Amino acid sequence: MMLKTLREETSDLHKEIESDNAAGLIMDHSITLEGYKTLLLQNFLAYRVVEDEIKPFYSEFSTDKSERLAEDLEALDVEFESALSYFKDDFRCKDKIEALGASYVLEGSAMGGMLIAKELQNCQHLNMISKHHFFNGDRKNVEGWKQFMKKVNSEEFSEDQIKKATTKAQETFRFFGKVFNYNPQFSV
Ligand code: HEM
Q1: CA of 188 to the centre of ligand 1 (A)
Q2: Which is it for the CA torsion 13, 14, 16, 17, positive or negative?
Q3: How many whole angstroms from 104 Cα to the centroid of ligand 1?
Q4: How confident is the model over 34-78, as pLDDT tens digits?
Q5: What is the Å distance from ligand 1's center to 174 Cα?
Q6: What CATH superfamily classification does 2-179 receive?
Q7: In Å, what is the CA distance from 166 to each residue of 2, 105, 173?
Q8: Looking at ligand 1, which residue's alpha carbon is closest to its atom 41?
């Protein structure tokens, strides 16, 4: 019931983020190096802030996605720490059930990442990048999602808990949407 509600109540937000996200430029292979840097930086900021909020409650669900984004950004000489201060106060998890709602979004996002990783190989403006750490296409990314589903399906939740987790999952999608509007200028 928890997963079903999370899925139903965030499916419109998922559709919105999927159509607005710069990752669409990877899907149609038109992305430029500057666009890719922006996409990586936006993702770094969103994942880092949300991961830091989940960590105190669920060490097992706290992903290392922002770490891998940091590796990609370092390889491309993009400074990524300073913009964190713009967003770090915009997202909070105050208990375990809110952290579960946020984890749903982070773990589930791995599936879109798999599709994107596949299409990255066909983006000609990025062919000088030899290794993608975040969009790496590794099946392990989906393992985290499977474990998350298993754990959530093995527990009982009250209606109130389902509601709280769902509200936080919706907020997490909106937070990602907000960070995806951040547009730094790079000199390339
Ligand atoms: C262009 C970008 C994206 C694409 C193409 C995409 C695509 C997908 C696909 C194909 C699935 C699997 C659906 C299924 O198996 O039923 C999925 C699931 C999911 N995605 Fe995305 N996605 C994108 C961006 C995102 C972002 C940015 C987030 C969150 C920040 C996100 C969160 C999720 C979640 C939570 C699920 C799990 C849904 C569920 O089964 O409960 N996605 N996505």
Answers
A1: 30
A2: positive
A3: 10
A4: 999 999 999 999 999 999 999 999 887 778 999 999 999 999 999
A5: 14
A6: Heme oxygenase-like (1.20.910.10)
A7: 8, 10, 11
A8: 7
pLDDT digits (tens, 9 = 90+) for 111-169: 999 999 999 999 999 999 999 999 999 988 899 999 999 999 999 999 999 999 999 99
Q: Which two tokens stand for residue 102?
A: 């946020």
Residue in the block written with tokens 């720490």: 81
Report the pocket of ligand 1 as residue ranges, CB < 6 Å.
7, 14, 17-18, 21, 23-24, 104-105, 108-109, 111-112, 115, 176
Distance from the alpha carbon of residue 55 to the mean position of ligand 1, in angstroms: 22
Alpha helices by DSSP H, the chain: 2-20, 24-27, 33-54, 65-75, 84-87, 96-120, 140-153, 159-179
**Cβ atoms of 173 and 17 closer than 8 Å:** yes
**91, pLDDT greater than 80:** yes
pLDDT-derived band at 185, boundaries 50, 70, 90: confident
- Listed by start position, the domains of the chain span 2-179
Q: Which residue matches tokens 């996605």?
A: 65
